[in-house]
Design brief:
By secondary structure, the protein is α/β, with parallel strands linked by helices. The protein has 2 domains: 2-104 and 231-302, 3-Layer(aba) Sandwich (D-Maltodextrin-Binding Protein, domain 2), CATH 3.40.190.150; 106-204, D-Maltodextrin-Binding Protein, domain 2 (3-Layer(aba) Sandwich), CATH 3.40.190.10. Helices cover 42% and strands 20% of the residues. It is built from 11 helices and 10 strands. The chain has helices spanning 2-7, 24-40, 55-62, 77-84, 120-130, 144-156, 168-176, 187-196, 243-256, 260-269, 281-302, and strands spanning 13-17, 44-48, 70-74, 96-112, 135-138, 161-164, 182-186, 199-204, 230-238, 272-273. Strands 1, 2, 3, 4, 5, 6, 7, 8, 9 and 10 form a 10-stranded mixed beta sheet that branches. Strand 5 (135-138), helix 6 and strand 6 (161-164) form a beta-alpha-beta unit. The model has no long low-confidence stretch (mean pLDDT 93).
């Protein structure tokens, strides 16, 4: 095992992304992979394996050879899959070795630019009055935009008419075109449209205001106490991957998160590099189980299942 770690890697490494090229997770993966390649001395190649809300990619990596040449980067979907799917080809808690968390991306609550309410408080009152006359878009089953929308409906105690799209881009395009009323989406997708004034922004989903949107209130301070949703990303290896190999790959990942080019790129995307304690296997392990419990309860209460 020690000899393997000393010579590792001897060929390119595949970093599997469960979503389409050009999407938020893909953008993060490609930036990290380019930086890690310099540290590892071998290419880190991103492979997009889409389908089934990210579970196809997760199952693929869970069954891959545990030799250090296949890794997975996934967001909150790793925690929501057990609640959404009655049958899974993998167990997030037992079928992977954990490498660490990487970045968190805040969410924003948006509406079409001509929606009448001017403040978050006015929006909440408007939603309660209009109910299912209003449409709420999301990027598909298991997407963080769906989870954010579910939490919003729960906290305002009102059901809206939800409209799923096949990805973030078409959901956002529907909002920009005025075809839907409300969308909760991450800053990597929305900042440019917010700054251009092509959508109406009501709040951010973090407990603290964002540096990139300092004048925008949090939903928590706007009356929805405890409202917090962010897109978090973790990196995983197949169960049984040698600890020394996981450590070497993890060290390269942590070095990438200190790379000035990565720091700048993540800031441009509105993404926050997680604290060093979260960048470790234990940091990811201790985070995942509570997230599974949290979102599983919400999904069950809403009766949202994929099968």
């Amino acid at each position: 095992m020690l000899a393997q770690a000393q010579t590792y890697p001897t060929k390119s490494i595949t970093l599997v992304v469960p979503f389409a090229a050009g999407g938020p997770t893909d953008v993060v993966a490609r930036a990290l992979g380019a930086s890690m390649s310099k540290t590892l001395g071998q290419g880190v190649v991103v492979e997009n394996k889409t389908g089934a809300g990210g579970t196809l990619a997760s199952g693929y990596v869970a069954k891959a050879a545990p030799d250090g040449y296949t890794f997975l980067i996934h967001h909150n979907g790793m925690a929501t899959a057990p609640g959404l799917y009655r049958k899974l080809a993998f167990n997030p808690l037992t079928d992977f070795e954990y490498v660490g968390q990487v970045v968190d991306v805040p969410m924003t609550l948006l509406a079409r630019k001509d929606l009448p309410p001017k403040t978050p408080q006015e929006l909440i009152a408007y939603v309660k009055a209009q109910g299912n006359k209003l449409t709420l878009a999301h990027a598909g089953l298991g997407a963080v935009s769906q989870l954010c929308g579910m939490l919003f409906q729960k906290m305002v105690a009102t059901d809206l008419t939800t409209i799923p799209y096949q990805g973030t881009a078409p959901a956002l395009n529907a909002l920009l075109g005025g075809q839907v009323d409300i969308l909760c989406d991450q800053t990597t997708q929305t900042l440019q449209h917010i700054k251009a004034g092509s959508v109406k922004l009501y709040g951010v989903t973090t407990h603290e205001r964002l540096k990139s949107l300092p004048d925008t209130p949090t939903l928590d301070e706007s009356g929805l106490k405890g409202f917090e949703v962010k897109v978090w990303h973790g990196v995983y290896a197949p169960k049984g991957t040698p600890p020394a190999v996981v450590e070497k790959f993890g060290n390269a990942l942590r070095a990438a998160l200190k790379d000035p080019a990565i720091v700048q790129r993540m800031a441009e995307l509105g993404a926050d590099i997680v604290p060093e304690a979260k960048q470790t296997p234990e940091g990811l392990r201790s985070w995942l189980k509570p997230e599974i419990d949290k979102w599983g309860a919400l999904i069950r209460s809403a009766g949202q299942y994929a099968d």
